[in-house]
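Fold Annotation — chain and its backbone

Fields — amino acid sequence, C-alpha cells

___
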Amino acid sequence: MADQKHPTLPGPTTEDEKRFRETHFYTRRKCKAVETTYRLRVVSGRANRSLAGDICKVLRQSETPCKLTQFANGEVGIKVEQNVRGDDLFVVQPVCKSVDGIDINTSMMELLLMVHTLRLASAKRITAIVPYFAYARQDRKTKPRVPISAACVSQMLQCMGVDRIITVDLHCGQIQGFFHNTPVDNLAVHHEWGRYIRKKVVEKEGVKDIASEVTIVSPDAGGVERAMQVADSIGAKAVVTILKRRAEANKIERMEMIGDVSGQVCVIIDDICDTGGTLCKACDLLKEHGARAVYACITHGILTHPCVDRINACDSLCEFVTTDSIPQSEETHQKCPKLKVVNIAPLLAEAIERTHTENSLSSIFGGKKDAIELPLRSPSASADMRPAVAEVPVHVTDLDKMTDRD
C-alpha cells in the first residue's frame, strides 16, 4: 500500500508560540509523515474549548468534530461527525462550568456520553483528559449519611468504558484507587510553578538568592508534598505549613502557621481556590508574621462569587496565578487585575503524545532539559503493535532560550 502524506494542518500562530513558550513542557512538533489506521484523535466537550484548541495546536493535530446540542428540557445530545473506528481517542473535558454558561453537571454528562458514544463507535482506546476532576473534595465520609462523591464519579466513568484517565493535580492522590483496573495519570504542575516563580516573581521582587529569600507555603497539611515539589524545583529551602480548622465547608474557624516567614517572599501553593476565603486569610496571616510579599499559585481557579472581590480586597496578596484547567472569562480578567493564567496545553499535549506512542509519562517530570525523542508510528506497523522508533526526533526547547511574555 502506497504511503499517504499527512494533510497540511494549521500549526501555532506567532501569538500561540509566545504563550506556549512560557511553559516548561512546550515542544516544537512536526506533522506525522504517514497516516496510519491507528490514528490519534482529539475530541472535546464544551467545558473548555480554548484549552482543547491549544492542545491541538501544540500537537499539530486537527480536532475531530463533535456536535453537542441541548434539548429544551436540558438533555444533552452528541454526534461524532467522523469515523473513529480503530482510532486512539483523547476526550478533553474538565468537569467545570464553562464561560458559555454550561454548568458543572452538564459538563459531567457530556464527558460520560462522549466516552459512551466513542465506545459504541468502536474506538480502539479512549483516554479521558480531565484537567479538573470535580467532586474530588468529597473523597471520604466525614459525617454520617453523606456520599463519597469522588468514588461515584469514578464508577460512572468506568461503566461508560473509559480505558485511561489523565488529570491534573488531583485534590487527593488516593482518588486514583477509586478506579479499579483503570490506570490514572495524575500530572503535576510544579515545573510550571517553578518556571513562573523564577521568571516572574524573582525578577519582580528583586530576589538575589532563592534559597534564602523565597518560602513556599502549603495552606494545609495535605498539600505539603505539593509544596515540597515546587520548593525542590526552584531550590528553595524553606517550606511553611498553615494549619486550619474548618467550622463547615468554605468556612475557616481558626488558622495557625508552622514556620518563620519574616522578610521572606512567600508563594502559596494549592490545588483549588473556590470562594477565596481560606486563601485571603492565609495571605493576611503571612503578612502579620512579617512576610515581604505574598503570591498564590493555584492549579484550579474555580473562583466562585465572591472570590474575585475577596482577591481584589486582599492587600496582602500581590498576584493570583492559576492554570487554564478551568476557563476564565474576559469579564473575570477585567474585574481581577491580579489574576494571571498559565497555559497547561503543552503539558497535556506531551502526556497525549507519550500515551499514544506508549512512552513513559513519569519521565517528563525528571527535571531534565535535554532533547527527548518521541517515537512516531511506522507506516508498516499493524494497529496492534507498539509504535516503532521515530525517524524525526522532537526536541524539547531549552528553558534558558525561551522568551517571556512582554
User: Anything to note?
Assistant: The first helix runs from residue 14 to 20. The first strand starts at residue 40 and ends at 44. Residues 25 and 147 are 37 Å apart (CA to CA).
